[in-house]
């Protein structure tokens, strides 16, 4: 049986027909489905590229193909391309295919509609919350309140109609978007940390007045939902109060220029480094190992991969109390979003207490092990098998 999986990641296709990504969802992610299915078809936006993008990962490979959807960015480009997009989605999956939609997703919702119209089953992997993604301060759009309600209602309907649902959180998304009473459900993160992702042991942090502290944050800058602007403001508060900190942000996107301008306006441009996209694996681990504290100032999250990767390197962390972050960090390490003063206070409090940082390092490393490959693979396979069986029954 073939499984068709939608994703919101955007890919590039070189003239030889191979497909590439500059994000973490390459071939190693999609081949996981081969434990229960004979073939995987990934449905994604694909743009033509004259050559392999720098630091790109291959997407397609043995058992994994890509069904290209016309490339677009944002609602205006989507509207201009809606007819060819609709045609591509209508042919994305056959009647006998299993279908797993990674939602919230425009492509996922389109394919869910196609399946419902033909009385065909689909399953879901719920990886985020549209209600939080469209919260005030996250997305700037005049129709944001209307879209917020519409997309949240749509996701609840999709979960209620799915033959099986997997959630990346333990409780948070399940409460907002429940599955049908008899549908199999699972709590399985899409994170897949190999043994080398983990530090050999916790950090022992000692007071050191001879150098400052390095903060690290990770995430896309295509939208402001990662809260990096709040973190830049917090760095300015810390520096003005005499705390010697520097921030390194790994990630790129269309708001990078805006955030660099904010750092200049607040007088901390020399203390904030925008490192751009950092390749997963050893390059990212090197960045994490060089830092003293991870900061996840998000306005919305599902279950943040970047935070778990930082915790796997035994980094103490401060995060906001949104989405699945409270399932990862202890209460004393959480602050409310959109509050630079509170975030600065939490960072300063952690950095000033080496014993607390040592305890947080050990605790975070232990929690990150729940997202190791060995821990998650059996649960992930069980979910895929339940989707296959539910598809056979329907």
TrEMBL record:
This is Glycosyltransferase family 4 protein. Keywords: Transferase. It holds the Pfam family Glyco_trans_1_4. CDD domains: GT4_PimA-like. PANTHER family: BLL3647 PROTEIN, GLYCOSYLTRANSFERASE. It comes from the Bacteria. One of its GO terms (molecular function) is glycosyltransferase activity. The keyword Transferase applies. It comes from Micromonospora carbonacea.
């Amino acid at each position: 049986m073939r499984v068709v999986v939608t994703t919101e990641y955007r890919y590039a296709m070189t003239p030889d027909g191979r497909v590439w990504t500059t994000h973490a969802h390459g071939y190693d992610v999609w081949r996981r489905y081969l434990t229960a299915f004979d073939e995987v078809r990934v449905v994604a936006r694909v743009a033509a590229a004259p050559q392999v993008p720098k630091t790109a990962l291959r997407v397609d490979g043995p058992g994994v193909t890509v069904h290209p959807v016309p490339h677009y960015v944002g609602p205006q480009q989507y509207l201009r391309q809606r007819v060819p997009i609709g045609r591509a989605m209508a042919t994305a999956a056959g009647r006998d295919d299993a279908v797993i939609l990674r939602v919230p997703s425009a492509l996922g919702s389109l394919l869910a509609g196609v399946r419902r119209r033909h009385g065909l089953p689909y399953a879901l992997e719920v990886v985020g919350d549209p209600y939080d993604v469209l919260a005030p301060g996250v997305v700037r759009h005049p129709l944001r309140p209307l879209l917020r309600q519409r997309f949240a209602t749509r996701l609840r309907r999709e979960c209620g109609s799915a033959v099986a649902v997997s959630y990346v959180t333990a409780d948070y998304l399940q409460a907002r978007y429940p599955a049908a009473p008899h549908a199999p459900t699972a709590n399985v993160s899409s994170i897949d940390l190999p043994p080398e992702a983990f530090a050999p042991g916790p950090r022992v942090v000692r007071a050191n007045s001879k150098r400052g502290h390095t903060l690290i944050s990770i995430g896309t800058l295509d939208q402001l939902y990662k809260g990096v602007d709040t973190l830049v403001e917090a760095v300015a508060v810390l520096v003005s109060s005499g705390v010697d900190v520097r921030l390194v942000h790994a990630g790129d996107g269309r708001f990078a220029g805006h955030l660099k301008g904010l750092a200049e306006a607040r007088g901390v441009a020399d203390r904030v480094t925008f490192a751009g996209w950092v390749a997963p694996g050893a390059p990212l681990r090197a960045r994490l190992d060089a830092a003293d504290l991870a900061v996840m100032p998000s306005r919305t999250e599902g279950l943040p991969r970047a935070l778990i990767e930082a915790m796997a390197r035994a980094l103490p962390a401060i995060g906001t109390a949104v989405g699945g972050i409270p399932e990862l960090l202890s209460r004393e390490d959480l602050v409310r979003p959109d509050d630079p003063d509170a975030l600065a206070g939490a960072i300063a409090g952690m950095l000033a207490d080496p014993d607390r940082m040592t305890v947080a390092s050990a605790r975070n490393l232990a929690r990150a092990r729940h997202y190791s490959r060995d821990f998650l693979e059996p649960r992930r396979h069980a979910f895929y098998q339940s989707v296959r069986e539910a598809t056979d029954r329907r």
